Predict the structure of Thiolase domain-containing protein.
Amino acid sequence: MNPANRPPVEAAVLGTGQTHHTSRRLDVSMAGLCREAIDAAMADARVGWDDIDAIIIGKAPDLFEGVMMPELMLADALGAAGRPLLRVHTAGSVGGSTAIAATAHVQSGRFRRVLAVSWEKQSESNAMWALSLPVPFAAPVGAGAGGHFAPHVRSYIETSGAPLDTGAKVVVKDRRAGARNPHAHLHQPDITVEQVMAGKMLWDPIRYDETCPSSDGASAIVIGDADAAREAENAGRGVAWIHATSMRTEAGTYSGRNHRSPRAGRDAAAALWAESGIDDPREEIDVAEIYVPFSWFEPMWLENLGFCAAGDGWKLVAEGATAPDGDLPVNPSGGVLSSNPIGASGMLRFAEAARQVMGRADEHQISGARRAVGHAYGGASQYFSMWVVGAEPLGELAAPEARQDPAI
């Protein structure tokens, strides 16, 4: 067979790791922050440095930390000396894109185990300032990410008829969920919709509590081929088999662009569901870790991903469908609204999806989770990365009606 036509090698997440996320991790350097996540992922995967064949790293723009090309000084600390090293950058979606790049390295058949790590130490710079710089040949943001996305949220409210407390309901769900996650930056177990609605308006209609925090943190995953995954399973350790990955990109601004539901996101989701054999994501996905830095993006992305029809995303929120005890739990980890180390936020979504199907999500574990989606977006909602992971290899997956039984 022509190697170019060779089917990809099966790949699985063997282990995940993440740091504690907070506003300022003054106790560690950038290298120490990364190693905290790396060491945790390697311990979870039960591998040593001799088992790692390549290192894939990802982070958001260098201006977010004020350090140009940090991978050069970090190569030794990341275990990359003497090994292949690749940096990925796709704005806020970079954590997810980094996981996908690591997956592709394993699926190529050239590497047996690959370590991926992404991070952000936002306390060493100022993301608002970095996002407000004039960009040549593009519309200026002027007020950071919130100022850019607020008009899109307002447009969604007006076109969908969503109640004005929809975003507040998402915040309450995610922050209460984050209170069960020891790694999360924000722990607010008693937050209420009334408190959120009474908060300061930052960018109409986005209120203070409807925004993500600014966090220092890192995430890492170890991805292995089928043999490595079987070895782990034979040793009694669950893995997260990677059923499908997808990335799509589009320009940030162009005539007629749908900012509420970008085409790149719709196309990426359609390709993801097709590759993973999913006909009805609402019925066949047990957990969704979706990149929601502003609460209103949960209903918007539910529609963009195809979990519901256009204009119905807010109804899933109102019905409680996306709560941890709903039929489509979204961000049981607390999501980006609870922790946002931008360069790592996408990988955290991917890692948390993997933790769910491995049964290692601790206090925020969703009972019976067998298939999960991780999602990230970046830039002006122009970069999208996502994957589907499952407790079994794609070819061995039970029929949808059987997967509904948590005992399986």
